Amino acid sequence: MAAVISSCTLNVSFRCATRMGYAARRVATNHGRSFSSATSDLKPSYEYILAEKNGSAGLITLNRPKALNALCDGLLDDVIHASRAFDKDDSVGAIVITGSKKAFAAGADIKEMSSRDYMQCYINNQFESWGDVAKINKPTIAAISGYALGGGCELAMMCDIMIASESAKFGQPEITLGVIPGCGGTQRLIRAIGKAKAMEMVLSGNMIDAHQAERDGLVCRVVPDDNLMEEALKLANKISSFSRPAVAMAKETVNSAYELNLAEGLRFERRIFHSMFSMEDQKEGMKAFIEKRPAEWKHK
Ligand code: DAK
């Protein structure tokens, strides 16, 4: 049933949005796609991103093509604003972040930060808000084509799932600029691909291609360039078709493995599992299985 739901979702998304009363409008993106758009807390438009809905997925497209989506302060502010708006929107179950075919993002904006001095960085706690992307409660999926370098790779790693297209290239080239990764590149990369491979990338600035990234466990899968958005949105809509609290608890519990030792993690998992038996969706999900019908989630 889930497979049926996911394969249908993309086709019905515009109809659904209209039926649900959104102010639907068509939006062209730099992947050349068009979707319906409307979510209450979203701004009508952003300077550096496109934000729209596709069925039950929120879609954020980095849109600074001339600079290969280099992550200037304004772009990051836009990403965080739209992510929070989708996080609060009950009709959205998961969020996809993508870039263009040539670049997911070529890193922090080197031109913007090049002349900053230590005191400016320190007093303003430069880039502190970047980490907020990892604080979004709903599942986030990075759909990556082309370059994901430096802060671009770090932004992708803040997401829960990374899907790459054949053209994707990942790297932490900060060492070539005389600095180090500053937003999780030294920490999340080692957890994703292990010390030996992370060290090579961070110390040499070497890039890895999509297939290497899949072999190393950095991305969950590689898809043809032309299928990237279809696959990412299909996955986001499939995740959105499940009980929202169950999905949120699954995300929180998996992420707790970053912070906890095994014994604490297993205890946390068990306690979360126990707590789910207070949910209507647990009753409904199991009853629906027994009655051989699709579950009707109440999201509580
Ligand atoms: N910043 C600014 N502009 C960039 C850019 C970047 N990261 N990457 C590309 N651009 C601009 C280029 O300057 C060029 O602009 P114009 O010259 O046309 O005005 C335009 O985008 C097209 O780029 P190219 O002409 O270079 O295009 P190519 O196809 O020849 O090369 C490339 C593509 C991706 C290989 C190349 O552009 C490149 O090497 N870009 C820089 C990659 C890089 O070094 N990235 C790491 C940046 S450092 C932190 C949070 C985050 C960070 C640090 C701290 N905290 C929370 C503390 C992150 C740091 C970084 O990401």
Description of the molecule:
Helices cover 42% and strands 16% of the residues. It is built from 12 helices and 12 strands. A 6-stranded mixed sheet has the order 3-4-5-7-9-12, with helices on both faces. Helix 1 crosses helix 9. The longest helix is centred in the N-terminal third of the chain and has 18 residues, at 2-19. Residues 1-38 have low confidence and may be disordered. Bound molecules: 4-(N,N-dimethylamino)cinnamoyl-COA.
List the helices and strands and how they pair.
Blueprint: H1 2-19, E1 26-28, E2 34-36, E3 49-54, E4 57-62, H2 73-88, E5 94-98, E6 103-105, H3 110-113, H4 118-123, E7 140-144, E8 147-149, H5 151-158, E9 161-165, E10 169-171, H6 188-193, H7 195-204, E11 208-209, H8 210-216, E12 221-223, H9 228-240, H10 244-256, H11 262-275, H12 280-290
Parallel strand pairs: 4-5, 5-7, 6-8, 7-9, 8-10, 9-12
Antiparallel strand pairs: 1-2, 3-4, 10-11
Helix pairs in contact: 1-9, 10-11
Bound molecules: 4-(N,N-dimethylamino)cinnamoyl-COA.
